[in-house]
Amino acid sequence: MKKTIMLLTACLLPLLSSNGAMANGRGDDTALLEAVEVHARPGEAPFYSGYVVPESSKAATQVVDEEEIEDINPRDLYDVLNFTAGLNMTFQGRKGLNFAEMRGGGGLGIILDGLYIPWSQASRVMSNFPVDEIAYVKVVRDATVLSLGPLTNFTSAAASSNQGFVLIRTKTGRGSKSGLKAGYGSYHSLDGHVYHGRDIGNFHYRLSYNKKYTDGRDGWNNARNSDSVLLRLGYDGKRMVINGTFYYDWARREIQRATDENKTSDSKWEYDPLHTFMGAVDFNYLWSDTQSTSFEFYTGRIDTDLRMESFTKPSEAIYDQEDYVTEFGLRHVVQWGDNSLRVGGQAILWDTPTGEFYYETTPRKEQLYGVYVTDEHRFLNGRMTLDGGLRLDWKHVSKGIEKYGPGKGATPLLEDEWAEPVLTASLGASYDLLPGWRVCARLSYSEAQADGFIHTTDDQQLDDEKRLNAELGLKAEITRDLSGFLTLFYYDIDDYKMGVGTLKVQDDPEVYVGIYEAADVERRGFEAGLDGRLIDPLTYHLTYTYQESDNRDDERQIPRHMLGLRLQHRWRVIESNLSLRYVSGYENSRFATDNSSHGVGGYSRIDANINYDFSIRKLAARATLYGRNLSDQHYVTRLGWQDTGITVGGQLSVQFL
After folding, report:
1. What backbone phi and psi angles, to 5 degrees, belong to 605?
2. How does strand 455-456 pair with strand 511-535?
3. β partners of residue 101
4. What burial class does residue 416 get, using C-beta atoms within 10 Å of its C-beta: 0-12 exposed, 13-18 middle, 19+ buried?
């Protein structure tokens, strides 16, 4: 292992410091691996798309395109998100595994080709989704873009749970490409990717098979195995544009064991089998070049057996878990002159007939309904924009647990109950100070009722949450080789719902519930980023996030500083990438054996890879040597679950020309 690290470091250092001549592109004498489609603005969506964001939000929007994803060489989607500003990725070995938190709290709405994926599904299966099939990831760091998705969530304790959105677009078959990738790494980890795409007239398709396997670390209970197929279909007509995405994954995943300071350290759980299906279809009719109507239909399903036993007891309990979501969307866009109007609505139907995510055998069925209207107007030949929007979200609970209480177990079920609607209003403005320099400002206000089924200290009734969000941003093309952004944010939240502990209410299966209190909270901070070229062959991407809260209990759960740095160097046909992620320390108390807060975070993770491009007859090939967490830190993002430490491996990619 140490020899491998030394070899990797020895190869990287001279490449990063070299001033040798750089060949144009990725090597003058070598055909490219899968060519990246050139966009003036990566991730820019057509006017009829549901992924459009107003100009005033673009300083707080970050796009990671497929070339950058390849440079990062990520383990999964959450590795990609780790290198965007404002986001903190955390992991736990429980039923819901992965979390993404933005600006100190609140989750992210994950939307895949238009499909809004509930956290109960995303936290279990999105780490299996093939990153090789992602065209771009667009992170919208504030939830004031009201046309993207709901601002509340299913079974959510906090009233306004979605703090922002992650928009994922998969690759299409445009350009007729075929290829494969195979890799091997630490802990007998195998990766495979085979794809074929083609366009035929107005039609195009792309089909891929993807493999992920690892034995995991001995004694950690973190093995996994995933086989998936992704099919992307499309039709680009003069008046009709149709897109379809169909994904199926059959997998098995062990749930990582906790360390001794965690109450769940004796749990030996796994999902086996873990089957996932996602389907997304959107129909866009273009009445003209400036007016469109779109209808969207999406569905997602998880079907799994949760196998629950312990390391000290031989008995096993098996729970069938089914989790379904069905969605409908309707949107109309009208542009005239310098004005753009968007009107739409969404219905998201969620059902867990075999038992709610955390509470086996107790079904839960909910629906979210949302309507919105947004308008954006351009002034001064496009140099200035003003926009505004309104959104209403309603939640209806058909059935589900009302509440757990100490010593009482489950109280009666909810049936046919409506929550008060969540009202959100937003205003935004942008202005071009100079060519390439844009200043942006956004203001939003929302009111939301707390869910009545959450457990609170002394069973108190919590007041509605009122939230005022303000944001000021700057996006600048400083020179030809240097660009950057800066966003300052301020949140004033009355009666914010904070988790203050956990309560064990059932032993078999183990069921813990969160305990919540309300507090007035002010959060503030900023995100900054620079992209540039130090010397001709060396480029860099730097992001920094600072965040704080005036509430002590809230403040201690927030990493105050987060830093991301990526360096890329090319010398002839050799490309090297070095990545650094730093997260300052914060506290976490969930499942603590002593019911106290413990320090987590406070880590620096270093990843690196070296790529060699070459060709064999009509094949363009790339050989890759990579290392992740090179400093071998067993850092913790949620109390009790460590990172596995250093992993190394190699890959070979081939594209057929």
Report:
1. -110, 130
2. parallel
3. 88
4. exposed
